[in-house]
Write a structure and sequence with these properties.
Length: 509
């Protein structure tokens, strides 16, 4: 047994009347990867912000190597050897600086470094930092402003920065939610090798399989307290039913899994070519069932969804909407007007208005409906929001709380709820389950399922288990092309994995 390197004793934190942490205590041994679990809103990120100096606790103590420490700010925690990757990758990226400047940020701000960094030096440092994660960046990408990067690249960027500092204790708050399976494996290999060299890790995720891959010890946070810690070793796996009982006050509901039959066609896509070198395809989306678009990161799912929504062009293609005929939105506003909605992949920039209350976020696209010439807007809006919050289990004290005071997973649910409040003909959801806990995933799945009675629903995901859990029909997308189209009954894991990974470029056919 190693020695305890990080000890948390009786940490408490309230936001106003909301007691978020009510006395949390646990210890992490040197060289361990400690898994921290908890439902959305349980207090994980708050605890992490306290451990990294971004928030101050109301009470309790933190000990490093047996010595009590206090971190007045994040820099103090970093100096003490605690490195943190926050849940929202944008918290670690300066969007207006270049990719190179972001990677080299620690050197640029290091007081001991020579002043007046040249671009060449910055780029050299940036490449070194990127190398920690095995990222290969071209000169061109190094010079992009960071806001041009997608969520997954931003996540890799903050991970590379944190790892390059070689912290003694590394804290990762849902680091894999925006990563592909391959990037996740690469990160895990790297974490394992750093741990073998003596680093200690505190790791948060909602994916049980990731705890099985990385951790021997997990602590469960629930309502701001730690009701249990669980162990496994080479011979005994984690007792997941017991862990889930500690995690939730109800066990995850069993989803109804009868495959629903296809209803009438709502949206037809014809001769769609997503990339210059991808083959054209046709796709019909029906009411009455949930269609999953399954593909790895970079397969073109987001491009396809954004094109349908009028948010970006593709190389070629036609869209038709039942009742409307040719459907060619020039702008998302046109799509919304015709009843086609998209839940975008990068919620933070595209979908959330930071200081607005929850109810305004939800009713945002439908202001007309709620303001129909009366003074009643407030109450009606609030009532509709409250009902939707209950349906999908948003944990917020009240619909007028500003959205940034909600936990990451609950912000996500609000943005989903927004689109479920409308009356869509076609609903496109890009990675809707990112960062939501298992119960919420079921609730969202069930709500989406109910909507299929009135709308065609397309859920894009790169996660096989999610696909099998929510889809009646699974369309596998690979380099901008449909390579398999299977009913739930015929979709085995093996078939799906095969289809996701074959090469399908135009010239290889
Ligand atoms: N700045 C803030 N002001 C007010 N309340 C806050 C603030 N930040 C967090 N909270 C509240 O603290 C509670 C815990 O949030 P936290 O973000 O720690 O949850 P979490 O366990 O990380 O959840 P998730 O899995 O969704 O990320 C929530 O009820 C949240 O609304
Ligand atoms: Mg969180």
């Amino acid at each position: 047994m190693g020695s305890t390197v990080l000890e948390v004793r009786d940490i408490a934190k309230s936001y106003g009347p909301n007691r978020v942490l009510r006395g949390v205590s646990f210890g992490v041994e040197k060289g361990a990867i400690y898994g921290l679990m908890g439902a959305n809103g349980a207090g994980k990120s708050t605890l992490i912000k306290i451990l990294s100096g971004a928030e101050q606790p109301d009470g309790g103590r933190i000990l490093l190597g047996g010595e009590p420490v206090g971190f007045p700010d994040p820099l103090a925690a970093q100096r003490a050897g605690v490195g943190t990757v926050y849940q929202n990758p944008n918290d670690g990226v300066v969007l207006d600086m270049t990719v190179a400047e972001n990677l080299a940020l620690d050197r640029l701000t290091d007081r001991d470094s020579p002043r007046g960094f040249s671009r060449a030096r910055t780029e050299r440092h940036a490449l070194e930092v990127a190398e920690t994660l095995g990222m290969h960046l071209t000169k061109q990408v190094l010079r992009w402003p960071a806001r041009r990067l997608g969520v997954s690249d931003r996540q890799l960027l903050v991970l590379a920065r944190a790892l390059s500092r070689k912290p003694e204790i590394l804290i990762l708050d849902e680091p894999t939610s925006a990563l592909s399976a391959e990037e996740t494996s690469r990160l895990f290999d790297l974490v394992r090798s750093l741990v073998a060299d003596g680093m200690t890790v505190l790791f948060v995720t909602h994916k049980l399989a990731e705890f099985d891959r990385l951790c021997h010890h997990v602590g469960v946070l629930r309502d701001g307290a730690m009701p249990g810690e669980f162990f496994r070793d080479e011979r005994h796996a984690f007792d997941w039913p017991e862990v889930l009982t500690a995690l939730f006050d109800r066990t995850p509901a069993q989803m109804r899994r009868d495959e629903l039959p296809a209803g009438p066609t709502v949206l037809s896509l014809r001769d769609v070519q997503v990339f210059p070198d991808s083959k054209p395809f046709d796709l019909d989306l029906h009411r009455g069932q949930v269609t999953v678009l399954l593909g790895l990161l970079g397969s073109g799912k987001t491009e396809l969804l954004e094109w349908i929504f009028g948010a970006r062009p593709v190389i070629a293609g036609r869209r038709e909407l039942s009742g409307t005929g040719e459907f060619a939105p020039e702008h998302p506003g046109d799509a919304v007007r015709d009843g086609v909605y998209l839940l975008p992949e990068s919620r933070h920039e595209q979908a959330i208005i930071p200081d607005w209350p929850v109810f305004s976020q939800m009713t945002l696209p439908f202001l007309k409906r709620f303001s129909a010439g009366t003074l009643m807007r407030g109450p009606a809006e609030r009532r509709a929001t409250r009902t939707m919050m209950d349906d999908i289990g948003v944990v917020a004290r009240d619909p007028s709380s500003p959205i940034h005071t909600l936990s990451g997973g609950n912000q996500q649910k609000v943005v989903i709820g927004r689109w479920l409040l409308g009356e869509p003909k076609a609903l496109l959801l890009d990675e809707p389950f990112r960062g939501v806990d298992i119960n919420a995933r079921h609730d969202i799945g069930a709500t989406v399922r109910r909507l299929t009675s009135q709308a065609a629903v397309l859920v894009a995901t790169s996660d096989l288990d999610e696909a099998l859990e929510v889809g009646d029909r699974i369309v596998v997308f690979n380099h901008g092309h449909v390579v398999a189209d299977l009913g739930l009954g015929e979709a085995s894991r093996e078939r799906l994995i095969d289809a996701m990974s074959v090469t399908t470029r135009k010239d290889s056919a």
